[in-house]
Amino acid sequence: MRKLAIEELCRMTVEEYRAADKLPLTIVLDNIRSLHNVGSIFRTADALRLERLCLCGITACPPSAEIHKTALGAEDTVPWTYHKDALTAVRELREAGYCVLALEQVEGSLKLGDFRPAPGVPHALVLGNEVKGVQQTVVDACTHSTSA
User: Fold this and answer.
1) Is the torsion defined by CA of 74, 80, 85, 91 positive or negative?
2) What is the dihedral of CA 97, 103, 107, 112, to 10 degrees?
3) Which of 29, 58, 65, 95 has its CA 20 to 30 A from that of 87?
4) Across residues 51-64, what is the average pLDDT?
5) How far, CA to CA in Å, does 33 sit from each of 13, 29, 98, 137?
């Protein structure tokens, strides 16, 4: 098998991406330290056509050369918002009718493979800091918790 060159991927333009249907999933980044991790999440969100990212706390925001290094332009296509803290973002999402899940090891968490999203309900997934995980106050504000 031959790997495709970037020009062969037929990547959508920014305008095409913004007009395309999205998967009703928002990712909340709770104090992600690594700019490369942020860029990788942007690129993954672009590939899956996710609704948006919520960057919270110390999570870096575009424009950033380090984010671009791994996002490869996805920071220009994926909608994102910045929130002072993840707790505020989670509360806003819950008020807007989202089912919010913390991706964290907690008592009674649902295995990610067993999770079945409710049809017609928008969902958000909170990803935590590389060392400390999702803050306990944020976990407490979520609808559910799921683990790998």
Assistant:
1) negative
2) 90
3) 65
4) 98
5) 29, 10, 26, 19
Signed CA dihedral, 136, 138, 142, 147: sign only: negative
- Global pTM value: 0.92
Residue 146: HSE in the Cβ half-sphere, 13 Å Cα cutoff: 17
**Residue 103 reports pLDDT greater than 90:** yes
89's tokens: 């973002």
Kindly report the number of other CB atoms within 10 A of residue 116's CB atom: 6
pLDDT over 70, % of the chain:
99
Contact assessment for residue 125 and residue 101, using Cβ atoms and an 8 Å cutoff:
yes
